[in-house]
Every structure is written in structure tokens, then in C-alpha cells.
Design brief:
ten-stranded mixed beta sheet; 464 residues; disordered N terminus; alpha/beta
Length: 464
């Protein structure tokens, strides 16, 4: 009887600790049953059972997919490096087995990727086939805005019904809890982390909740989780115009640019007029230019202006279920609730004021308008970053990133100056880590030796 009482007492204490902390840190996580990955025999794949709702850790459970590439030099193994490619919608499990990482990182770390909720093999949210015949996301009047909101509501209802309860539990705060469950399942006291683009939102959430369990963290091309709707859209709009201006300067100084010696801005405006002759031609051209600037692929950007043809979304790495996952994740991580046509009109005017060349940001505008009609406040609302328990985190950004503005990286550093170091790649494109030997070396040295790199890496002009 006494042993039974002790067992019950231990159980109650564990439950109280779980409830107070909001995580199951008082309990060991279940083990992961590893097996060779079907598509990569060097990798190991498995699943981990976690609570659907971390506020109710004793309730319904789900499986999240995990993959790892074990350190190739186990005698010098440092630990676990969790990684995420962003999106949202990118498979972190597949990313962990990719060749992006240097031989040194692959030698010294077990590289681990967790498919975030709704992506990859973690109960994927796939609703693209429900998004047929959408109205314009650039409504010209009250009727157009009403049609957009109603369309969004219909898609949301159908997608939620198809996806089941995971749809309402796929915000970044929940993903951070899953990350810590995997840490415990791996038996690691601390983890290192490398998150790209939207993966930086997961990283911020983890550093806020579990800062003392972070050995090192890199946030590359950071999405600022403190921004409101106006900044979410407006700062992205300004960033893409800055990138176009950089492309125009390159043409001015580069003889091999097909537009060298011309007024690139005037040529762009002429291309837009020519594109108007085709259905949706102007928007397709703008979307393709956005992709070219994101790589960056300035040769293709030149081709787009010179020919106004064969447009494609160059370089955009949207995953097949990105448009579905963003409803469950982005709309719950940010307060993107455009409620009236008047509010939309003010927002659109601000976009055009800050982005007269590119007419706004493709991703910023599309994500904001996709969330119009989503009910209630976000479950993981934006807020000022608090990572006081974390070690020095490396924030990395290209100065001329068209997708995640450099201003966001600066603001993250400003919010946590003691716990962050900012490494600026003085060049172009989205995701800075692979852009140069300096950015790769700076990140690798930091992850391997906890050596904070210099504050700046020079620009490397992209191939022509």
C-alpha cells in the first residue's frame, strides 16, 4: 500500500509539473523506434508520440515524423543539431538528410529533422484541391473583398473538416513543445538548432520556452514574430523593392546584363504593360520576378523584362502543401485578420507606398489576405521576444533579402541584444547560409565551437 501511495504521489507531482510548465518535461518521452529511411539508407526515420494539445498532455496523442543523419565521426560527436527548412510546409525530416550541411557538421552532429505538424509525414494538411477558382486577392471594391472573405471561410471549414483536430494545433508554440519532446526522447540535455526562414519562428518559440536547453541556435533569414499586420505586409513590401533596386544597380554596372545602358525601371514598367495583354499576365510577371530576386537569379530577372514571356515562379520553394499549412500555422502565429474593405484598402495603400516598383510582396500580401476570415485571435500571437534564459543566438540575414526583411533581423537583435549576435551578409537573396564561404564558415564555426563570427560578410555577386 505504501508503495502504491508513493507511486500515486509521484504521478500527481509529475502531472502538476507538466501542467505548470505546459510541457511534459517532468516525464521521460517515449523512445523513437528508428529504422532505415525508405528514400535514404544513410538516414534513420521514426515517429514520436506527443500530445495533440500540449495544454492537455494526458489527452489525445499524435505521431510526429522524425529523421536523423548520425554523426559520421562518433568519437568527436558534439550532440544533436535540429534543423528546419521553413515554409511552413517544408519537410524537416527530409531536410536533415540533405546535402546542404558541411562535412564538418555532418561529422560532428546527429542532424535531426522533425516534420512540423501538418507537414511531411506529421499528419499532413493537404487542401490544395479545395482552393479552386479563387477570387482575386487584390479586391477592388467591397463586393470583391466580401467574396474573398467568404471564399476563405469556405476553404477553412473544408480544410479543417478534412484535416481533423491537428488543424487547430499546428502553431509554432506547439511545434516547439514537440521539439523538446524529441530532445528528451534522444536523451540529450541540450540541443543545437538551425532554422531557415519560417523555421526561425519555431526556433524563437523554442528559445523562449526552453532557453536553458539550447546549446547553440542559428536563425537564418528570420521572421520577426513581434510584427503586427501593418509591419508584416509593409516591411516585406519595402524589402522586395529594395531587392529590385539592387538588381537595377547590377545591370547599370554590368556590361553583360542585357539591359545594360537602359533605364531598368522604365523597362520593367513597359514589361508590365505588355503583360497586361494576357489574362493574369501582369501578376504572373510580378510573381516570377519575385522568385528571381529571391534566389537571386538576375539573369532570369533580365530575361523576364526583356521578353515578358515564359514566366514561372523562379526560385520559389513553396512546398506542395504550403498554401494549406499556412492557414493552420501562419494564421495562428500572426494577427493577420483583415476585417473590412476599408482596412484592406489602407493596408494596400501602404503596400503600394512602400513598394511602387513591385506593387507589394507576393508572400506578405498572399499570407495576409489568406488569413482574412479566420475567426478569433491567433492561438500563438506575436509578441516581443523574451529569450533571457538562452545562450548567445546567431541571427543571420542578407541585407537585401526580398522575403524576410533585413529590418526583421535587426529588430530581433534589438529586442534581445545580450542573447543574440547579428551576422549580416551584405548581399542578396533569401537564406544566407549557403551564399558564401564567409556565411557558411561563420555558421559552422559557431555551431561547432560556439565561436561568434564577425558582424559582416561581403557580398558575392550572383552568376550572370
Amino acid at each position: 500500500m505504501r508503495s502504491l501511495r508513493r507511486a500515486l504521489a509521484s504521478s500527481i507531482v509529475a502531472t502538476v509539473l507538466v501542467t505548470c510548465a505546459g510541457v511534459a518535461s517532468a516525464e521521460p518521452a517515449p523512445a523513437i523506434a528508428w529504422a532505415p529511411c525508405a528514400d535514404d539508407q544513410e538516414g534513420e526515420c521514426g515517429t514520436l508520440s506527443v500530445p495533440l494539445d500540449w495544454a492537455k498532455p494526458w489527452g489525445q496523442r499524435i505521431d510526429v515524423a522524425v529523421a536523423r543523419h548520425k554523426a559520421t565521426d562518433p568519437a568527436r560527436r558534439i550532440g544533436v543539431l535540429m534543423v528546419d527548412p521553413g515554409g511552413p510546409g517544408g519537410s524537416a525530416a527530409a531536410f536533415a538528410l540533405s546535402r546542404l550541411f558541411s562535412p564538418d557538421l555532418r561529422a560532428r552532429f546527429d542532424i535531426v529533422g522533425i516534420d512540423s505538424r501538418g507537414t511531411g509525414n506529421s499528419l499532413p494538411i493537404r487542401c490544395a484541391d479545395l482552393m479552386t477558382d479563387p477570387p482575386s486577392s487584390y479586391p477592388a471594391d467591397e463586393a470583391g473583398f466580401t467574396a474573398l472573405v467568404q471564399y476563405n471561410k469556405n476553404v477553412l471549414a473544408k480544410c479543417r473538416e478534412r484535416s481533423g483536430p491537428i488543424f487547430d494545433h499546428a502553431d509554432s508554440a506547439s511545434v516547439a513543445q514537440d521539439m523538446d519532446a524529441v530532445r528528451r526522447a534522444l536523451g540529450e540535455r541540450k540541443i543545437s538548432y538551425l532554422g531557415l526562414s519560417y523555421g526561425t519562428v519555431f526556433g524563437q518559440a523554442y528559445a523562449e520556452k526552453f532557453g536553458d536547453r539550447v546549446r547553440a541556435m542559428v536563425l537564418d533569414s528570420v521572421v520577426d514574430h513581434s510584427v503586427d499586420l501593418k509591419r508584416f505586409v509593409g516591411e516585406r513590401a519595402a524589402a522586395v523593392d529594395d531587392s529590385f533596386a539592387e538588381f537595377a544597380r547590377w545591370c547599370d554596372r554590368t556590361v553583360s546584363c542585357a539591359l545594360h545602358g537602359q533605364d531598368v525601371h522604365a523597362a520593367w514598367e513597359a514589361a508590365l504593360v505588355r503583360a497586361d495583354a494576357e489574362p493574369l499576365g501582369r501578376q504572373r510577371l510580378i510573381d516570377s520576378m519575385y522568385g528571381a530576386l529571391s534566389v537571386p537569379d538576375w539573369g532570369y530577372a533580365t530575361h523576364l523584362i526583356a521578353t515578358t514571356g515564359a514566366q514561372r515562379r523562379a526560385g520559389l520553394s513553396f512546398e506542395p502543401n504550403y498554401e494549406s499549412v499556412r492557414l493552420a500555422t501562419v494564421c495562428q502565429d500572426f494577427s493577420l485578420r483583415i476585417r473590412t474593405f476599408s482596412e484592406y484598402s489602407r493596408l494596400r495603400a501602404e503596400e503600394l507606398r512602400r513598394s511602387p516598383i513591385m506593387r507589394g510582396s507576393l508572400i506578405g500580401h498572399d499570407e495576409a489576405t489568406a488569413c482574412a476570415g479566420v475567426p478569433g485571435p491567433p492561438s500563438n500571437p506575436p509578441h516581443r521576444l523574451n529569450i533571457s534564459d538562452a545562450p548567445k543566438i546567431l541571427v543571420l540575414s542578407a541585407r537585401h533579402d526580398p522575403t524576410t526583411p533585413y529590418a526583421w533581423a535587426v529588430n530581433i537583435h534589438r529586442q534581445a541584444p545580450r542573447n543574440t549576435a547579428l551576422l549580416t551578409y551584405e548581399g542578396w537573396g533569401h537564406v544566407a547560409y549557403p551564399q558564401s564561404a564567409c556565411t557558411r564558415g561563420g555558421v559552422d564555426d559557431y555551431l561547432l565551437d560556439l565561436k561568434v563570427p564577425a558582424v559582416s560578410c561581403p557580398a558575392i555577386e550572383p552568376p550572370r
